[in-house]
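Q: Hi! First time asking for a complex rather than a single chain. Here are the components, and I think there are four in total. Is that enough to go on?
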Amino acid sequence: MPLRLAFAVGFLALALLAALQPWLRFVLTLALATGLAVLGIMMLLRAGQVSFGHALYVAVGAYTIAFARPQLDDVLLLLAAAVLAAVVAGILVGLFVSRYRDIFFGMLNLAFSMVVYSLLEKLYWLTRGTDGIRVARPRLFGVALEGARYEWALFALALVCVAIAAALVARYLRAPAGEALSALKTRETRLEFAGVSARRVLFQAYVVSAGLAGLGGGITALATLHVTPLLVYWTHSGELVFVAILGGTANVLGPFLGAVVFELVRVHAAAAFPDAWQMILGLVLLGIVLLAARGLVGLLEELGRWWGRRV
Amino acid sequence: MIRTTRRQAVAVAASALAAPWILPRSAIGQQKPSEIRIGISTFLSGPASVFGVPGRNAADLLIEQMNARGGIQGVPIKALVIDEAPGVNFLLGECRRLAQNENVDVMFASISSASCLAVAPLAEELRLPNIMWDCGTQRIFEEGKWRYSVRTQANAVPEIVAPLLYLLKMRPDVQTVAVVNQDYAWGRDSWAIWKTAMEAIKPGIRVLAELFPKFGATDFSTEITRLQALRPDVVFSTSWGGELDTFLRQAAERRLFERSLFVLPLAESSLERVGKTLPEGVIVGARGDHWFLHPIAKDTDRLKNFVSEYRKRYGQYPIYPTYHMAQALFALEAAYTKAIAANGGAWPSREQLMDTLRGLEFEHLTGRMKIREDGQGLEPMLVGVTKHVPEYPFPVLDQMVLFPPELTMNPMGTKGLEWVKGLTMETVAKAPAPIPYKA
Amino acid sequence: MELLLLLALLDGLAYAAQLFMVAVGLTLVFGVLKILNVAHGSLFAIGAYSASTLAALAGTPWLSLLALALAALAVGAIAGPSIERGLLARIYDKEQVLQLLLTFALFMILEDVQKLVWGVQPVFEDAPVRALGPVVVGGIVYTAYQLILLPGLAVVCLLFLVWFLRRTVTGRMILAVAHDREAAEAIGIDSRRIYLLAFTIGAGLAALGGALAAPTTSLVPGVGVQTIVLSFAVVATAGLGQIEGAAATALLVGLGRSFAVYFAPELEVVVPYLLMVIVLVLRPSGLFGGRELRRI
Amino acid sequence: MVGETRVSSPLLEARGLVLAFGGVRAADGIDLDVNEGEILAIIGPNGAGKTTFLNMVTGYLRPQAGSIRFRGREITGLTPRRIVRLGIARSFQIPQLFTEHTVLENLALQLAAREGFWAPFAPLLSRARSERALALLERFGLGELASVRADALDEGARKLVDVAMATALAPRLLLMDEPTSGVAASEKHAIMDRLVSALRREGVTAVFVEHDMEVVARHADRVAVWSNGKILAQGPPATVLADPAVHREVLGVEVAPC
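A: Yes, that's all I need. Here is the structure of the assembled complex.
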């Protein structure tokens, strides 16, 4: 199975990178967390729907950890709480937005995320506003880890989460309800005429995507140990869509490939051009859209084909 | 071929996996470095870059001047600047990069309070000396003990208490007040300090409106209409940057200044831009003991030279973030100098550097200040009232009062918001005499 | 109390006028090209910055008013065709998501371009506001610029667009393409030219919105970002490509916001989004949007 | 009560259906019965309201007046999803295929819609489902196209896949909107022969809109002629097609040599 091989090679490469460059451990952990959120975005993109507000669930996951931390002192329990909260939020919002398509879907998601953003800023007594909330470093399996050990543990945990999530989502996408996502994009009416609720198809994927984003947000909060409302600002949602397109929606490798490349480009652009890193990212996105619309995964496939022809 | 690569890879991976348990470079020994590398986090994009970029400019200028003098103790300085605008996640990654990849010796973080709150624990973890050069929240040293962080300027408590004392000294008859603050942590925090202190000193002042337009608002017409209808004696606003400029311009166009007295603790940074649109008689703060016409330091070569060089290069008068950057740099220089002297000429370890910074007294562009044992900087607060003079195309400050830290800053171990409840009219009476503007 | 209501109404109108000027171009572009142009906010910002620069050069306050219009025209005429021909035209056959992302990329690039050209210090040029002076209503001082000129121009703009789209041949061609591109092409309309035209008008309106807002506000990095999100909400609430809908929605949002400031300040920020959700619950295709049935 | 259980009761009863779009009356009092087991052809000029009738029966359009009963049950105003579950499937005049899927997947999705659709981790193309989908395709002579993406098909093949998808839902009543338009004339009859014999074998009632009078004459048990939103005539093909009024209305417009 070439996809499994690609994941294995990718994991090895990431571990090596994290080992050689200690600072990348953190950056790559965040990239994997972003990848999880983007995996959810990618499911919705298959249905032709762009959520311009999915950072909402990243923030729900992250803030759940910040709020639950005083009561819970275990990484896994906290992550479970983050996913649960995001799923609940996803169900509530999803019941509403799954009725809508295209711009309405995108903008309603944006609206919900912006409302949450302003609430996080406004409910100052609860959330500390833009200052954000500190998260005390939790234990893992009852063990208190310090510094680099904690970073390694979290990095490994992120890899495990990615492996499980990617495997499950890959299977889901091959199941009828997963295949129906792109059917919803191409001929929603036909689905209805087959007796399938297109709304339920989208809703189900939406809740899964919210859960994935919550997991990503949870890992992010555990890595940064500080959460701020900026997590849910709309440009962050835009970034998630950006990464989804960058990686490509052809298979579940795309979101993670996209997220890692995005973070690395951003870090290096910021180091080289602190005044214009945003422009560099914009140019990368422009190039992808104009020249490689199927994203990095598409590029890889073409490269493979080219190689096959040469050999 | 393939076999060697794999073996190499395994070897690299194995050694790398072991790496975290090897002690960091700095703990091994302190040789005099070839350069002092400073990581600076500041806003290079977004609305807060109105402070971030002048801060960075000041760093460029001052480091160049310091290096021309031979750097700190003969070691040249190199700054690596990062943008804190994308948020905490990104910033923490960048700080790790600076610490672990660029091997910076000191971190200067940051402008936003969120950034400072997030970086402080990381500095502990990385054992990275961190000088908070501009962020204002008082919570940092009240709620945490940080071995590796100090702050080389005051904080929100004196920055708000001083203008309040100034107001009550100048206008003890104030009856009503309204607030227009940006809707984010600083806007809320600063109002909480003001309100609590005001109720303690002079109970009975009525708050007519608490307006918190959203952060980044571009229009305050509605708020201004409200204020015109309510006619408060005092309008208090800790807004800054483009939003403060807009608010002031719109207020001027709509003659709000004729009805209410404005108290603007951050307006020093807007004076040159808004120009004489801002009328006389507005109370303005400078977020510390600095201004380009500082009543005591204005004729010193150090300040005059800085102001003229800064203007020559960047076309503007320096505003408070440039002084804050200068304070951080001068503190670092003073700390290295003192630590090396105490060390018998040997280069100090990171911990020695931090120990020296605590309790350090140092000279900066406009005066002398001290860092307290908890890491909090103590500096006087300059507050004045605007006056139009022919020498400048924008208002200058008149009747300047330099509030000493003893009067406006809560003592170590107390919480600012609690401490201000103990302020009284006597505190107001203790304010030093105003110094009039002199050309 | 009546006075308070009147004041809230006036403030709401003035705000709605500004909002409409920004949202209407976005609506037009979306209606015709079916692209939600994220870079619309950047065009707004560039229009505003250019207008400030030009108005500062104008010398007299009255000339500076003219400078605003000129700046908008220039930005629209240059940016519109170059973006449409240079970028958008290359991906009309691709998925909508990609078109959206293309404009997002453009937005990121233009954000930094603004910073490189105009720097980070706030830019403020209020000569046009001062030229018109104040108006006093019920003892409250307003600026004529915001209370009269802006709403007036918004109404003129609305009427002009409605006339242009409904009564002129070109306008009807635009509407035809907006309604059904294939059918329009079948009757001989060159949709590529219509796209170019509509995008240029949209870009011009964005720049005009910026230029007219410029004298009332400080321009800082990120000013476009603030504007664009609100415009998104207006476009979606109004219904797809509905010019009158954009006007009505802008009015709703403007009044909603100012009443919030008067009577429930904490709600101010969420008002546009609450309105959007309420409208879309009641009318799933937006305030003025008709339900589209696909031919099967 | 007794009446409803009678064997001779029509499977589908439409009564007084009215629907107008902006002045055009696409349905102007349609009364039509479709009996269990019969195959009914609908003919008429373009714009006569044939597709509108199918759209109303399947719930895509809601009639402004009138009622539709299926197996004695009122179905007017139900959604397409509910109606298809009651046993009415349809094909489309403009093929409605999932263009990012292969032909086999298109069929498999229809099959899955009847059972096992929400099993989250069982693949769409399970062996059993693939075999059934392939068997259905073979019936339409489409076996070779199974792994072709739907957007790469030619018009005729698209049309047939569309019809195959409708039959995959195993309906009691199958509505087909011009099932063989676009299919090469040489294949038309062969395909209709196979399709109709399968329908008869399985006892499926069918209604199809058709322009080709030969096809109608050969396969329909009964013909209904549409004109301006009304039914002009109905009855056995031989009688109806011989009617001069029908000839003028339908053949005169449609088939006359230019």
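A: The interface with chain D takes residues 168, 171-172, 174-180, 182-183, 185-187, 189-197, 204 of chain A (CB under 8 Å). Let me know if you'd like any chain examined more closely.
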